Amino acid sequence: MSVSQVVPEEVIPENPDVTSSKVVPAEPEARRLVPINLKKIVRIGGLGFLIVSLVGSVATIVIMAQQISDLSIRVNSLDAAFRSGQMSQLSGSVTSLEAQSRKHEKQLESVSSGLESVQNQLADFQGEHSKLTGSINKLSSEALARRTAIDEHSERIDDINSRLSQVESRVAGLSKAESNTSQKESKQNQQPVTKSKTSSKSGTGQIVKKPERSVRRAAVEAPFVLTGIERRGGQMFAVVIPRGNSQISDMRLLSPGDGMLGWTLRSIQDSGTAVFSVNGAQHSLQVQ
């Protein structure tokens, strides 16, 4: 190989045969959020970049080694020519060899600086990869905690909805019972009061008329209705609502010692009975 045949294009190939892998993201499922695997994408990109850099560096070093070997052969041939007396051709060959040697030294320096740059970029990439991994792990933990909190809130909401349904059914039953009671009382008030006359004859023949007194006593009616008994934290509460009201916002929880509309709660029994005191007398109310 002569000196004139050495061209710069032979030192570094233009298009190294490096195949790049394509990552085809999976299609997201319907109505479901699939998290992007950032770790895998970053890892594949970094490895591809590193492989391309290393292959280019190795190819450059191999070509330069071949060029240096050719230079050694040429130097030996020049030595032989010098000994044979070809001085004119020797000076031109030496000049060309010096130029090519300087060119190769510059190329080696550029390759070395390129390798150092690749190493620095790889170190930076590893640091960013570590930060990204930590961020992904943190986001995963936060997402798991939020999902757990959402599940707990959903369970609480379902429990509250079931309790509200029970309370609404009780209130509807109480309203119906109260309307029936009001109808019965109105019918009883409309009935005429009959008085029986008792005739008795005395020794003088006089007739004594005595009106028959009613022995019925009006039962004391509470101004509220006992709708249920609940146990919370080991303590029992009586659930009451003012008579004639059917809204849940009017309900109250009473514990022993609490009062409502002049009635004071004394005790609560597991059988569904609550004992109240009013005007010094005690009255038992059943859950309705």
List its traits.
3-stranded antiparallel sheet; alpha+beta; 288 residues; single chain; Plasmid transfer protein; 4-stranded antiparallel sheet
Broad shape:
rod-shaped
Radius of gyration: 52 Å
- Give a quick account of the main beta sheet: strands, pairing sense, barrel closure: 4 strands, antiparallel
Helicity range: 40-55%
Descriptive report:
Among the domains are: 127 residues; 63 residues. It is of the alpha+beta class and 288 residues long. A 4-stranded antiparallel sheet has the order 6-7-8-9, with no helix packed on it. It has a 3-stranded antiparallel sheet with strand order 3-4-5, with helices on one face. A two-stranded antiparallel sheet has the order 1-2. Helices cover 52% and strands 18% of the residues. The protein is rod-shaped and about 150 Å long. It comes from uncultured Citrobacter sp. Keywords: Membrane, Transmembrane, Transmembrane helix. This is Plasmid transfer protein.
Give a short overview:
52% of the residues lie in helices and 18% in strands. The chain contains 2 helices and 9 strands.
Q: What layout of secondary structure does this protein have?
A:
Layout: H1 38-84, H2 87-190, E1 197-201, E2 207-211, E3 224-232, E4 235-242, E5 252-254, E6 259-260, E7 263-269, E8 273-278, E9 281-286
Antiparallel strand pairs: 1-2, 3-4, 4-5, 6-7, 7-8, 8-9
